[in-house]
Amino acid sequence: MTTPEDTRPLLLVVATGMRTYREYLLRSIAAEYRVHLFLSTEPEWEKEYVAGWTVLPNTMDGPAMAAAATALAEREAIAGVLCWDEARIHAAAFVAQAVGARNGDPDVVWRLRDKGRTRAALDDAGVAQPRSIPVKTVDDAVAAAGVVGYPVILKPRGLGASLGVVKVADEEGLRANFAFTLAAEGPEPVVFDTDQPVLVEEFVSGEEISVDSVVRDGEVTPLFVGRKVVGYPPYAEEVGHFVDAHDPLLADPALLKALQRTHEALGFTDGVTHSEFMLTESGPEVIEVNGRLGGDLIPYLGLLATGIDPGLVAAAAATGRPVDLTPTRGRVAGIRFFYVAEEDTTIGSLGFAEEALPEGMDRVVVVAQPGAVVSPPPKGTVWGRIAFAIATGDSRAQVAERLAAAETAFDVKPA
């Protein structure tokens, strides 16, 4: 409960996301900030963490939210604006702009949201990345693949979580999969370039990683490196991640240089980002950059591994306050997602045998409910996940072993 004596800075947070995946952020932030939410529905679980909220018809309407924020700012000073929802970060930039917050530049955020614009900006700056050609039709895609060279990656220009991403080996595969990429959509629609909605990209090989970073006055500092586990080829489903507090990439000169140059090219100077790179034989190449904290609970893995609190880091970046980035832990944390085996499975029951779980489990969570009809990738990409497990340990091998044991302890039965 907020009192008149509460002098904590007021942070405006746009949307919260699913409790399972984002509550840890709001809990941390509420300890040091008064939080006002902009939501499209009445808050539920969020109420214990917030000082107030405003329910708006559409939290993807940036100018409308900016007007509401201006009215709020007339009553009390807003120290900063924060959003970790990919579909709403562009709209939130209008809000930040309206109240004079540090990350208030809609053009910059749109440059990150639209992967076609990202590629163009990085290309102009000479940043290493796969060659990419935006296209409209399958015939355009075939022509682009002839320029790029097979195999190629088909990718929607505006989605996250590897939705619609597929590797194709030849023209036959491209023609067979183009409609899959073109039809891919997120949970909420965002309109991108309808003339060229698909990117045909050069396939680059190596290990794919993610880097959550804080950016302050243009200086980029990596917080956590996520080592991806990708499954269901030729689709790029992210089935797990590992974060190591002592990952040598955190001090790797080539990666640090690539991070800095990438953010400079995109004009992103303040806030937090989730960047993805392919570690090729010739060095890191940019896959994409998101203007928010990472999903898939990767920042939570970072918290478990290092003790650095991603919620407080993001809030500090949004408000310009100092934040301690000193690690207080030195562990490895990992997550694994679970799926059904067959397409269009109606779930009868599912759960973990608690007695079979190993030491080092942070949590095991059932996401789907009995009666739900779910599929593995590609039909169930991301949305096909039915449960996940998180473990910690002293090494990646130990954490992987614990996650494998959790998978053995997990059982799902069709109806």
TrEMBL record:
Keywords: ATP-binding, Ligase, Nucleotide-binding. It comes from the Bacteria. The keyword Mitochondrion does not apply. Residues 119-319 form the ATP-grasp domain. The keyword Ligase applies. PANTHER family: ATP-GRASP ENZYME FSQD, FUMIPYRROLE BIOSYNTHESIS PROTEIN C. This is Biotin carboxylase. It comes from Saccharothrix longispora.
